[in-house]
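Lab meeting prep.
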Amino acid sequence: MYQRDRDYFDTLKLGLLDGSVEGSTLARLKVAAEGLGEQTGDPGLDSVLGEIDLRVAVELAKAGIR
């Protein structure tokens, strides 16, 4: 993982925790998370992707983004 990516994810994580994530960032997150609910055939991976998909949905709902 590149340092730039790590910095972005750290900023995103902190923003989600303190509620300071901008709507545009959440919209990008929504696009990035599309398709996470699809099955891969690996139960462990499917479980993790499902948890990520749920968390994205919760954060989008909290921000009023559909």
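Slide two material, second protein:
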Amino acid sequence: MLDVSSQSVGTAAPRRGLVRRVAILASLTLVLVAVAASLYMVRTVDNQLADIAKTYEIRRQARELMLAVVDAETGQRGYLITRDEAYLEPYNVAVGNLSQTYQSLLALISDNPIQLKRIEALVPDLDAKRAEMARTIELMSAGQSAEALALLRSDTGLELMERIRTVLRQVIGEEDDKLIERNGRMEFYRQVLVATILAALAAAAILAYALLSRTQRKVVALAQQQNRLRSANEELEAHVRERTAEVEEARGHAERERARLETLLQDTNHRIGNSLATVSSLLGLQLARTSSDEVRNALEAAQLRVQAIASGHRRLRLGADLETTDAAEFLADVIDDLAAQMPPGKPVTFEKHLEPMIIPARDATTLGIVVSELVTNALKHAFTAGQAGTVAIRFERPEGGVTSLTVEDNGSGIAAGDGQEGLGALIVKQLARQFGGTEPEYRAREGGGTAITVRLPRLDVPTAR
């Protein structure tokens, strides 16, 4: 018995599912049919409404045409009877409206051959009526009142008016018949539309019931799935928090390592600068104990070069990437150190024209040595003891050009070969080649003095703005 019952229940479930699906499909089909029928009915009703509106407009234009003829005739008769020209104003207005009203009516019935034929047949009568009215007014204006009144009393005008009225009444009558017919169709379409809407509502109710029962089952399944998703989401969030903490810890460690490395690099540069300063001091002590002028000159030159290298290392400030530095800021500090080392007997001022430019840090010290050699060369050869003057240092890269370093003075100038074959010139030449440069360019400065330019093509790096 238990096996039979289980088999019966298992068989009934698919049948109920099949019946439910058939009911939903039938209801949906009925809704779609009802919607399509409703749309068709609405479109049909719109067309009928447009036809009704056109019918009313044809009737109105036909009446307007009849009234125009009547108003023109009334103005004509009033003028002929009273000879008061005030009656000519409504006459002229009515005659002027005849053509416009006729054309409007003609355009409205252009798709109706029967009505079009009737209206076109009015043209001779309308022209004859206008001619008859114009003739009587012309005769009266010319003082021929007897002839004008005789023409007015003739039956010609009455016959024309009667024919015009008859045709326009036929036009209006046919449009009235169409209006009655279209109103009947509108009533029929309204009843069909109501029946279609009721059928659609019934089908929608059946469909809504079927969908509601199915939705309830879906909601239960969705709630269970949401619970599973919530649990999985909580586990995922815990994992994300754990990974975020690890990432934050790693980033903090990287930032600390970067800060430590930056400090180490700065400390290394300062240590190198201090060590070179010690070497410079030792050279100074040796210089004080030497009596030979040749040795003194060599030691003094070596001391100045060691001081330049030491100044470059102490003044080097690395950028955020720990690989670049601002050349303008670095060279300004180096030039300030050179100015501070000036002996009291040389009242020379320095002018700095330095374009902000980011350069590799490894090239900064080399660039500082080149500036130091050129400035020292200018101080040594351009000015005599106690002579005041100016040394200008320019570091720039013209638009689309090559980076260049220029040191110029307004001193006495350098004689041919003076300062161009010494150790300093050789150092500048060798260091310039590291940046792809050529021989330093020596030229006389306008107004006195000398300018030395070193071009550095490989130092062509983005400008700091």
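Talking points for slide two:
The two ends are 94 Å apart (CA to CA).
The chain has a mean pLDDT of 78.
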